[in-house]
Fold each of these.
Amino acid sequence: MESYHIRGGTPLHGEYQVKGAKNAALPILAAALCRGGIHEIYGCPEIGDASVMMNILRALGADCRREGNCLVVDSRQLTSAAVPHSLMSMLRSSVFLMGSLLMRTGEAVICRPGGCNIGSRPIDIHIDGLRHLGYTVTEDAEKVVCSGRCRGGKYVLPYPSVGATENLMMAALSGEGLTVLENCAMEPEIMDLQGFLRNCGFHVYGAGTGTIAVLGGKGTSDAMYFIMEDRIEAATYLMALAGTGGEGMLTGVRGGLLGSVLQVLENMGCRIRSFQDRIELVSSGRLRSPGTVSTAPYPGFPTDCQPQLMTLAACAAGETQICEGVFENRFTHKKELMKMGANIETCGKNAIIKGVDGLQGAEVCARDLRGGAALVLAGLMAEKETVVTGIQHIERGYEELEKGLRQLGGNIEKKSERKTEKTEESAAEAGCISTDHGSGSCVSVLPHV
Ligand code: UD1
């Protein structure tokens, strides 16, 4: 049982170098199977989800090792096209293996990436898209079995799902001719996946726009690729600077990727200078409400920054309305923030936050990755000590968050507590850990964002 112990109230200041993007690294690791080769992937963050993805690749027969800042994936020999149950249910992003395994082997067997507590997260668009491309897909309550080759043509996604766009890009590579995907998600991480695939010698065009064209082919070379920066990690650090009344600079991040977030922070009173490779922020001290903020697919305000924004709004002068436009159940942090004194009311996908003068430290529990980050921010802003438990969720997607925040002057420490029956029971009661060990069910107990 590990937890963060945070003493809040200190304005953060200084410089932080943004790490590689989780949401680019995970599909790119899956894409390393599309062409059998020895691929070098640089800048992959050392996070829990990347370790699980590496274990999945190993289970499929690839050799995967970390050499410093580089992940080397040798995917020349695959021994299986079936993603093991136990690993699949640990990682929502394992769904990307459908596309890459189909491209490589003409078959893929996955179990359903389970429900989690930010929404039902079905994979119907992935499956519908694969069928339209010509694959045979059979599914039951537990498994999805896919086979065949892509026959090309056009598929219009009914919603710009990030994961479905990425999966279909990979699945379309097996086609004889041209496949056109329309109404695609436009997230920058999709451009990064395209960059990787092109580095392998595949022909993929248009990522970052609503229309992506994929020309079938086998690929021509081993890749050497640098993962893009993590714009959500960057936003989290910017919000930590803003919320604590601090000032600082993030390096290795293109300000242009964070337009909607920077706009909201400016509306809250922060002074921001955004450059090609860095962002500087000076907080106004007490922030003011940004009014109404709705999350939406890129370039809209990212749903992955909504929990952190709720923390800032909790102490901002005035009333903030947040509309969660992407997931149907993404306010799990609300109850915990209220334990710290926040005034928040939710109704469905809407939240109204009335800014209070300050938060007080409390023991709170992270129930998902970004909700957990929001609680860490709250701890940095609060008076007295905050203990955040359930940090395994946070570590799935942030590399050493506590070290980065300490580097900016935050008073945060990670502590380990020996697991006793009592601590395990109370954590399970609070929903911080699973008590469902290896039941064989595919329903995941960890939220996978
Ligand atoms: C990705 C990101 C996640 C981010 C999300 C939205 C990765 C690894 N994860 O997740 O951090 O929060 O984009 O920006 O990149 N949907 C369906 N059917 C489908 C697929 C999606 O109904 O087949 C719905 C989902 O339930 C959700 C919405 O579409 O309500 C967005 O999901 P999607 O864009 O697919 O998100 P992910 O790819 O899972």
Amino acid sequence: MTALQDLLVQRIRQQGPIRLDDYVQTCLLHPEHGYYSTRDPLGAAGDFTTAPEISQMFGELLGLALGQAWLDQGAPAPFTLAELGPGRGTLMADLWRATARVPGFHAAANVCLLEASPALRASQARLLQELSPAWIDHAEDLPARPLFLVANEFFDALPIRQFQRAGDAWRERHVGLAEDSLQLGLGPATPQPALDHRLPDTKEGDVVEDAPALAPIAATIGARIRDHGGAALIVDYGDWRSLGDTLQALKDHKPVDPLATPGQADLTAHVDFEALAQAAPCTHTRLTGQGVFLERLGITQRAQNLAKGLTGKAREAHVAAHRRLTHPAEMGTLFKVLGLYPEDAPSPPGLEP
Ligand code: SAH
């Protein structure tokens, strides 16, 4: 039994079953044994890979879109250039390089990173040294000024609760014990006013999810954008409202049981973009597939230019990366992009009002 498993079993023995969001939070961010606290999980040698790690084109195009949105709003200075959950810092590094030619952008930008993991903060500090970033612990720490923000695969890491429909009430799914191993169980049926909007589109036994940390973060970002201007590009897997159990654990690039190896597998869930858009008190774009979004921003042309300098294996890998980011059978439609922007500004490039 791992140290974290032991700790969870002891806790449940003392207190009874715990909420799923409590379990996920502990697995991901326990200060000593948490998945993100202790390691860099990204890349081929890690447990999963992400769009910025697949190709530099991803960060470059997001950077140019954000740079254009900044110009469209009159190039406000100074402004906050923020990223939520920057991982290794790859997206921000590519974004920064690509925006070097947006006049005044670098000089006006104060880079701000929301990151919970000390191990990943250290990677970001190494890669982003020349940007002199400031790290924050909470979205509310974002300064009261124009905010241009990116987030890739951040919201899917926020802990979720799950509720199973029982009549017009809901039974919450808990993590309890069967002998000495962790097991999912169901709490008593209780009314959940926050889930009233899910009564018309669910039936007996259906599972719905809620990430309690999502709405407060979206509300803060949206308020900065409404009050001071700016734009947010939020990329993640999920949909406009989700249905069913989407909790997923990945270890060595393979799915595993989310309860089997606490603290040693990445845990994510589909993002409910409807909840995100509704919590943000500014305007939002249509939810758009990552493939379509990147095509509109010119990924094919960028890919062709980069291919000119490549031969052999490197060229094959580059072509495969382009396909992986955009093709509907790969990340092109599963991953979606939502833009947030002020009511009186044009929608960010690549996205429709
Ligand atoms: N955006 C990066 C990394 C995605 S992994 C990429 O695309 O490669 C998720 C990131 O969010 C990690 O950096 C993780 O440490 C961070 N993270 C997860 N939960 C967090 C939380 N509650 N607060 C702040 N950062 C968090």
